[in-house]
Amino acid sequence: MAEWLSSAEASRRLGVKPASLYAYASRGQLRRRTGPDGRRSEYHPDDVATLAVRGRRSRPMQPTDVVVPTAITAIIPVGPTYRGVPAVDLAGDETFEAVADLLWESPHEPDAWRAAAEVPDPVPTTSRAHGGLDAGQRLLAVTVGLRAADPLGRDLRPTVVVATARRLLGALAASLGGGSAPGTPLAEVVARSLGTEVGDAAVRAVDAALVLLADHELAASTLAVRVAASARCDPYAAELAGLAVLTGPRHGAASRGLEIALTEVAAGAPATGALAAAAAGSSVGGFGHPLYPNGDPRAIRLLEVLEAGDLGPRLGPLR
Predict the structure, then answer these.
(1) Which one of 3, 179, 183, 186 has the fewest beta carbons within 10 angstroms of its own beta carbon?
(2) Domain spans of the chain?
């Protein structure tokens, strides 16, 4: 068996920068694994050869993938790191609000979050007001309404943008129909919207899930937001760009089929059959991510948080 290639060697054979290898791997075009030292990535030689031949048949390969230098998030073998801190270390110990402030490089001020939530909302955000819309449509509608009523919507000073983001997150969570009082932690608001019994364990699990999903490098929705922001769009417009992409069936909406499958498994259906039906001829969302060939560390951490609370006994068929 041919030896896997180092990042430097794979880059040399393809004629691209090492940073471009990540984009090929994320698209499933290039198999990647963690090397023996646990830090460096290695790439499958057959995939490198295939990509190299494809490039020679058309034109000298050019790095057309989007590569954006960032200090926000990096993906390493233990999963995403936020500002250098592993997300799996934050999940279960820090609130989503604290992690959002970390990503924004803003001091964590719980009072500021409560104040943002208590600003009178000019747009009805209850599930009754948006009863005919699905969750994605409600988020889009609320964002448009908030922008129309915000006199500071075009103010791009960092402190104002952060304040806007806090208020927007609170309104988006409330639009899901949790029916919580202003100032309620976002994880509790989201937990209530799920229609399950809301105890400390459920809130902690939702908080952990929100933390683990807070950022994942250049996901399609993140890229859309960054493109909008680079054009000096206001925070609401940038958020709309990201939400629009997130509603796509190959991005955020990919979880719907999987949710149905997991519900069937929890009710006693065979896992293989339920997942096959969810796939419907394509891959199942949440499985086989090319960046995590040995399993997603975020899923492992979330299961740990669930098992640490009183939700553990319910995980049997989902383990």
Answers:
(1) 3
(2) 5-67, 74-286+294-318
